[in-house]
Amino acid sequence: MELTWHGHSTWHVTVGGTELLIDPFFDNPKTDLEASDVDDPDYVLLTHGHADHIAHAGEFTDATLVATPELVSYCQEEFGFEDAVGGMGMNLGGTVECGDAYVTMVRADHTNGIMTEYEVDAGMPAGFVISDAHPNEADAESTTLYNAGDTALMSEMRDVVGDYLEPDAAIVPIGDHFTMGPRQAAIAVDWLDVDHAFPQHYDTFPPIEQDPQDFVDNVDDAEVHVLAGDESFDLS
User: Fold this and answer.
1) CATH number for the domain including 164?
2) In contact, 11 and 36? CB cutoff 8 Å
3) How far is it, in rounded angstroms, from Cα 93 to Cα 64?
4) H-run or E-run covering 79
């Protein structure tokens, strides 16, 4: 499994021969790429409907959309997506097969209204657990990644994601203000008991400017990787 961070919360994840793009938003200072520079993924995963997570989703409408049914409906109408996983999206607790990957949708503590000329209910905000094995069949040979999305610190990270889904690596927001900050994110990493951790959702706007070293210094056991924009890491 290979990860590439394109700044903010935008990740490209390769599992076997399957390409996943998470929360495409390229108007951020960490990437040198435009959305048009990115090869078409097989799947686009959206954690929630805020503009800094779906801004460039419409550039990838040939992909299969993975999101809540409410957000799928919005993206089909707004961007022209035709294909969604399961034909209608998925919801919290579910696992779907996406090519060589298995994607489990988990809870995130956040908001999810889309503010246009009218407010759109995009369903529940979410995180994703991505693995090369179904969670019921995962073993020591499998590789599993948890992307927490935009979230506050919550006990579900310890009691459900860490205990049951057993990720090897976690991507967590550290920007504070809209999500948990560096020290709460470090607690999340320790609760999850992962080997590798990656910060996201910071330094994009003034309210979420952070020194990621604060996150690094507060993580007890995991190896923290502060990626540069468009930098990749191989989890295999």
Assistant:
1) 3.60.15.10
2) no
3) 19
4) helix 69-79
Global pTM exceeds 0.85: yes
Q: What is the mean pLDDT of each run of 10 residues along the chain (236 residues)?
A: 98 98 98 97 98 98 98 96 97 98 98 79 94 93 98 98 98 98 98 98 98 98 98 95
Does the residue 105 lie in any domain? yes
Query: Is 234 part of any domain?
Result: no
What is the predicted pLDDT for the residue at 15? Answer: 98
The answer to whether residue 30 sits within a structural domain is yes
Domain boundaries, position 139: 2-227
Instruction: Count how many residues are written for the chain.
Output: 236
Q: How many domains does the chain have?
A: 1
Residue 235 in any domain: the answer is no
CA 130 to chain centre: 9
